Amino acid sequence: MEPVTLETGRLVLRALAAADVDAVYEACQDEAIQFYTPVPVPYRRTDAEKLVGEKLPAQWADDRDYTLGAFRKDTGALVGTYCLTLVSRGVWELGYWAVREQRGRGYSVEAARALCDWGWATLDVHRIEWWAMVGNTGSRAVAERLGFTVEGTLRNRSIANDGKPHDWWVGGLLRP
After folding, report:
1. What does pTM read for this prediction?
2. How do 91-98 and 127-133 pair as beta strands?
3. Whole domain around residue 122: which residue ranges?
4. How far apart (Å, rounded) are the C-alpha atoms in residues 14 and 24?
């Protein structure tokens, strides 16, 4: 599938472009993003270049992972990235990270809602899942504001960038 562009009242969601590499690189220097998401640590500019120039376009082409960058309409600033990833037939996972300076303003809820609405309308989706490492209260707050039901905690679900196993929350959102 070709990348789409979505708009909300305050945001434009679009495929990341070469001009966005510096903003992605800067955002991924955040220790919280490095701890709670599966980005390389340390995060180098070449990681951002590969993500934007190779990995994300290939995922769109494979029709299994759709990532968009969210940008403020008023300033053009990167807010974060938001993705839907195929888990199994009809089940997709919502993932996201937000630039530290853009958090707490409702942008992630706005962006994720637009992406989920696109998913319901475009993809064969009956369930969207959300996963976050226990302690990532910002991610959980976004998921709950989107209407996800937190369904449980999985003990030692995965090894984080710190090399240790961590518990994870899981939630689900069913087709409206």
Report:
1. 0.95
2. parallel
3. 6-126
4. 14
Q: How many domains does the chain have?
A: 1
Question: What's the rounded mean pLDDT across residues 3-28?
Answer: 98
In a domain, 164, yes or no: no
The CATH code of the domain that includes 51 is: 3.40.630.30
The residues facing 93 across adjacent strands are 85, 129
CB 84 within 8 A of CB 94: yes
d(CA 12, CA 41): 28
| Model confidence at 21: pLDDT above 90 | yes
Q: What is the pLDDT of residues 127-145, one digit of tens each?
A: 999 999 999 999 999 999 9
- Which pair of structure tokens corresponds to residue 145? 């504001």
- Locate tokens 């706005």: which residue? 110
At residue 24, does pLDDT exceed 90? yes
Per-residue pLDDT at 176 = 82
